[in-house]
Design goal:
19% helix; alpha+beta; globular; single chain; 10-stranded mixed beta sheet
């Protein structure tokens, strides 16, 4: 029999083996003992990425399938691409069909992210360099301001189609349909209807030809959610008036009920701005909110990313990630839930005041997409002043904007209208006596 001494028990405390980080995938703490929000986040499955990158375009050259030329443009007013050498035309692949983004809404669980919507690596350079296959020269594209460039030696055209981690390349693009001349005419018509009250400096400097076609970055979200709301609803039983003259008051009697509602629902192609600048809706410094008024876009017709669609247009880079946009998504989902239950509380003629709300998001799918907008801007009062926008939906032509006005003209009009209405009221009273 051996008399060897058993190994000592490992010590505990700082520096002991128990302080070594746990093996990946294991939990040093029982999740059941954690608060619900922390437990749910810990046990939630990792985001799943759907690869939407076009492997055939990673060298930066988008070649005509017929002749191999790289000078490719979008045919104005259509979703077609056209080769400027042989005039061949073809249609981009719709992401809805290519990747099944319109399917399985009822089966969504966890967070599914398309590869163009993955988290941004801020350390990645905005400069992309390609080696020209035609002559061997190096062509550089600055993704901060453009997505295409032409080789200055052999005239090959290059586009940033590889999904670089700086957020410049989305999963899909919705091409422009409204041409510039049409957008200019719509903006001019919008302003002409408001010229009477417009600021003098604005009218003098108004040049709608300076409108810019820009692709704005959005996250297009599908989701499956449920919500519970609870509150109090009132049904009027009696209405009566007490007092006379200026002291007359109207009173209501109502039956009060406790109201609870539960709703399960899905959302399809909900757009969220993924640019911090455009998502800033501070009406004290800009009128970014007008971009929301030209929604919706027919995102079902978005095509697989191809930089050739951006020739002749500018674009803005995405600078927010999925987790940063999640609170805004939840706010919108809760608003949708309220609308869903609205029809079921019509009997409460005095309304319902929701006092408790709970939202459960069971699954989401995120796709990064460029949407087309014609923008005209005017800065009131020079640098640092209020920035006004007039926007045209690049697909439907829907137009909305902000025109700086002369405050004294508005005040004068209000006084004039008020005096006119007061005169009519006095005349009607005099006629009835």
């Amino acid at each position: 029999m051996s008399n060897t001494t058993p190994p000592p028990v490992p010590p505990t405390g700082p520096g002991s083996p128990r302080d070594v980080p746990p093996v990946p995938g294991s939990y040093p703490i029982d999740p059941a003992t954690l608060p619900d929000p922390i437990r749910d986040e810990l046990l939630a499955p990792d985001p799943v990425a759907i690869d939407t990158a076009a492997a055939e375009l990673k060298d930066g050259a988008n070649r005509c399938p017929k002749c191999g030329a790289t000078d490719i443009r979008q045919r104005p007013g259509t979703d077609l691409l056209i080769c400027l050498y042989c005039r061949n035309e073809w249609h981009g692949q719709r992401v809805e069909e290519e990747f099944g983004f319109g399917e399985g809404l009822d089966e969504l669980t966890g967070t599914v992210i398309a590869s163009g919507a993955r988290d941004i690596d801020t350390d990645v350079s905005s400069l992309m360099t390609y080696k020209c296959t035609g002559c061997g020269a190096e062509v550089t594209v600055n993704t901060e301001s453009t997505m295409t460039a032409r080789c200055h030696w052999c005239r090959h055209v290059f586009g940033v189609n590889e999904q670089v981690a700086n957020g410049a390349v989305p999963d899909a693009v919705l091409p422009f349909h409204i041409k510039k001349d049409d957008a200019v005419a719509r903006i001019r018509q919008f302003v002409d209807k408001r010229r009477l009250f417009a600021l003098k400096e604005f009218k003098e400097q108004f040049t709608p030809e300076n409108v810019v076609g820009v692709y704005l970055p959005y996250m297009i979200v599908d989701g499956k959610a449920s919500a519970d709301v609870a509150g109090r609803g009132e049904i009027k039983t009696r209405e009566y008036t007490q007092g006379s003259g200026d002291k007359k008051k109207t009173y209501y009697d109502a039956d009060i009920y406790e109201v609870e509602r539960h709703v399960d629902f899905t959302v399809d192609d909900l757009p969220l701005e993924s640019s911090t600048e455009r998502g800033n809706l501070d009406t004290g410094v800009n009128t970014n909110n007008i971009i929301n008024t030209i929604l919706p876009f027919d995102t079902k017709n978005a095509v697989k990313w191809n930089a050739s669609y951006l020739s002749g247009y500018t674009s803005e880079k995405r600078d927010t990630d999925v987790e940063q946009l999640r609170p805004r998504l939840e706010d919108q989902l809760l608003s949708i839930a309220r609308c869903q239950v609205e029809e079921s509380v019509n009997r409460f003629d005095r309304g319902v005041r929701w006092e408790q709300e709970r939202l459960d998001v069971h699954g989401t799918r995120w796709v990064a997409m460029y949407l087309p907008v014609w923008l005209y801007s005017y800065q009131q009062g020079g640098k640092g002043g209020m920035l006004h926008y007039i926007a045209v939906n690049g697909r439907t032509g829907e137009t909305m904007g902000s025109v700086p006005v002369q405050q004294w003209k508005l005040l004068l009009a209000a006084i004039t209208v008020g005096t006119f209405l007061e005169g009519i009221a006095l005349w009607m009273l005099g006629s009835s006596t």
